[in-house]
Specification:
By secondary structure, the chain is an alpha+beta fold. It contains nine helices and 15 strands. It binds fe (ii) ion.
Length: 295
C-alpha cells in the first residue's frame, strides 16, 4: 500500500484505496497495521455514505453509541453548524458549548466507561476558509518528554469527567445532564499499544486531576503535559477537502477543531469506535485509586 507522510511525528496519507470497497479479508489488515504504526490515516477523494462510514468503522470494532434512541436505531453523528429548517448556527446552548469545547485539545470519550479506539470522520460540506482539524502525536510527546516529567507520569493515573471540559467554556451549562451522566473515570496516563509496544500519553481536556495529588498539583501537571505535547511545530493541521476521510488513534493523539465563518456551513460525519480488550484496555485500569485529594 503506497503512503505519503503527513508530519515528521505521525500520520500517513494512504493512496490508491477506495474505502467503500475495503473488506475484512481484503485491504483491512494492511490499513489496520498502518493505523497501529502511524496513529493517523488520511484517505482523499472518498465519497462515503453514512452506511459506508459505518461499515468501515465496524471493521475496527464496536461503534460507540450514545444516542439512547427508544427503538435502538443509530444515526451517524454530524459535527455541523446547520440546524433543521436550513438555518445556520448552533441549535441550542448545549450545541454551541460543544462546538466551542471541540476547540480545546482533547481525546474523545475518555469520560466513558469504555473509551474510544478511534474517530473516523469525513467532510461533507465545507466553509470557504477555516475549520481545520489539528492533531498532535502523544506517542512522540512521550518519547521526547524530559526524564523528570517521565518519572512523574510513568505510573500516574488521571481522572476524567465530561463536565470538566465543558466547564472551561461555561460552568452553568456544564451542569446539564448530558455532561454529568457518567461516573468519573480513572485511566493510566500512558497507553501502551499492544501491537507496537509503544507508549503514548493519554490526555484529554476532560482530565480534571491526577490520582493521589491535590486538585491544583494535578491540574498543573496536566497543563505542563498539554503544553509540551501541543507545541506549534508538533501540530499536523488538516485543511479539509470534501471527501477526505481521517482516522485517528484516540490512544496516541490529541485533536481540536479551529474556528470558521459561522454564517457558512461546515458539516462532517463522525463516528467513534470503542476500544476492546485487545486494544490495551485492561492495562489502562488502575488496580486501586485514592481519588483527587483536597488542596
Ligand atoms: Fe473530538
Amino acid at each position: 500500500m503506497r503512503t505519503l507522510p503527513l508530519h515528521a511525528d505521525f500520520g500517513v496519507e494512504v493512496l490508491d484505496i477506495n474505502l467503500a470497497t475495503v473488506t475484512t479479508n481484503g485491504a483491512y489488515p494492511a490499513i489496520r497495521e498502518l493505523f497501529e504504526r502511524h496513529s493517523l490515516l488520511l484517505f482523499r477523494a472518498q465519497s462515503l455514505t453514512d452506511d459506508d462510514l459505518l461499515r468501515v468503522a465496524r471493521l475496527f470494532g464496536p461503534i460507540e453509541d450514545r444516542q439512547d434512541t427508544p427503538d435502538g436505531s443509530f444515526i451517524v453523528p454530524k459535527i455541523s453548524n446547520r440546524q433543521a429548517h436550513n438555518k445556520l448556527g448552533p441549535a441550542s446552548d448545549a450545541q454551541l458549548l460543544n462546538l466551542k469545547a471541540n476547540m480545546l485539545w482533547h481525546t474523545d470519550s475518555t469520560f466513558l466507561p469504555i473509551p474510544a479506539l478511534l474517530n473516523i470522520i469525513t467532510a461533507r460540506v465545507l466553509p470557504s476558509s477555516g475549520g481545520q482539524t489539528e492533531l498532535v502525536s502523544t506517542r512522540a510527546a512521550w518519547k521526547r518528554l524530559p526524564a523528570d516529567l517521565k518519572a512523574r507520569v510513568a505510573d500516574a493515573v488521571l481522572w476524567h469527567r465530561f463536565a470538566h471540559s465543558r466547564s472551561k467554556i461555561d460552568p452553568t451549562l456544564a451542569t446539564h445532564e448530558l455532561f454529568t451522566r457518567w461516573d468519573d473515570q480513572a485511566w493510566r496516563a500512558l497507553w501502551r499499544n499492544p501491537v507496537t509496544g509503544e507508549d503514548a500519553l493519554y490526555l484529554a481536556s476532560h482530565a480534571y486531576g491526577v490520582d493521589g495529588m491535590s486538585e491544583q498539583e494535578g491540574q498543573e501537571l496536566i497543563e505542563v503535559l498539554f503544553d509540551f505535547a501541543t507545541q506549534p511545530e508538533r501540530i499536523y493541521a488538516h485543511a479539509w477537502d470534501v471527501g477526505d476521510v481521517l482516522i485517528w488513534d484516540e490512544r496516541a493523539t490529541l485533536h481540536r477543531g479551529t474556528p470558521w465563518p459561522y454564517e457558512e456551513e461546515r458539516t462532517l460525519a463522525s463516528l467513534c469506535v470503542s476500544v476492546t480488550d485487545s486494544d490495551g484496555l485492561p492495562a489502562m485500569k488502575p488496580a486501586t485509586t485514592q481519588g483527587v485529594l483536597a488542596s
